[in-house]
Amino acid sequence: MEPWNSTLGNGFILMGILNDSGSPELLCSTIAVLYMLALTSNGLLLLVITVDARLHVPMYLLLSQLSLMDLLFASAVSPKTIVDYLQGESIISYGGCAFQLFAILILGGAEDLLLAFMAYDRYVAICHPLNYMVLMRPRVCWLMVAASWILASLNAVIHTSYTMHFPFCMSREISHLVCEIPALLKLACADTSTYELMVYVMGVTFLMPPLAAILASYTFVLVAVFHMSSGEGRQKALVTCSSHLTVVGMYYGAAMFMYILPSSYHSPQEDNIISVFYSVITPALNPLIYSLRNKEVIGALRRVLGRCASAQRL
User: Fold this and answer.
1) I need a surface site. Which of 41, 125, 164, 242 has the fewest CB within 10 A?
2) In whole angstroms, what is the distance from residue 43 CA to residue 71 CA?
3) pTM (2 decimals)?
4) What backbone torsions phi and psi does residue 262 show, to the nearest 5 degrees?
């Protein structure tokens, strides 16, 4: 096939999960509901953490950043999918595809690093409680947040630039829900084997060290928890850690499937399901996982709603 000038053409056609579904109306409605849930729950959690002074502690600062990332992640994928289905077309411009790829890479990479920092926060809080406010002082927390965004931004700029510089063949159909590296490389006319190896190495580098840090942190945490004399303290620690580990399992499982497992071991249909999982389902579930079993968050939510009700009565 001859290459086509993607900067002047009509862009790409996203052949996502709705095209392969037997009931696209139901699936589109589900995605819309999950998106609204992600917007509401993450937005509410951000509001509560910002407004309630009792939650101005390192753990909730990091959690607020996770909510921000999930809110933006969902917004980078779901609205486009829903609008395309309602309009009956799935065209995305070359620039729009590049922007979507950049957004997914920066938000996914930042969340990857942030989850490791959150695990370290729990490790310090449970294993070194007397030194917690020293080791997790505000400056350290903001450095963690900044490092997550900056490193993810550098990674996103490199991969977006390199992926979009390839000449693409006459076929403009991307067999994927969104513009992602594996799906785009299948349309490239040039040899991408070296770059695919680079993507694999970067995936391992970005995913495995944070995952190893998370597993090490929670290993120490669980050992410390089972040696606690207070039953109430043990239960609180287990609830918090189980919430974190649930989110870690969902996120890292999907990311490793997509970027570390060789493409020959998974089909475009499986890729579509995984992309829905980490771009639509996970952002909606994360705030619920963290808040439903967290008495501090629920208490803060009640206080904020109480203030709003009092203000309305006045």
Assistant:
1) 242
2) 7
3) 0.87
4) -55, 145
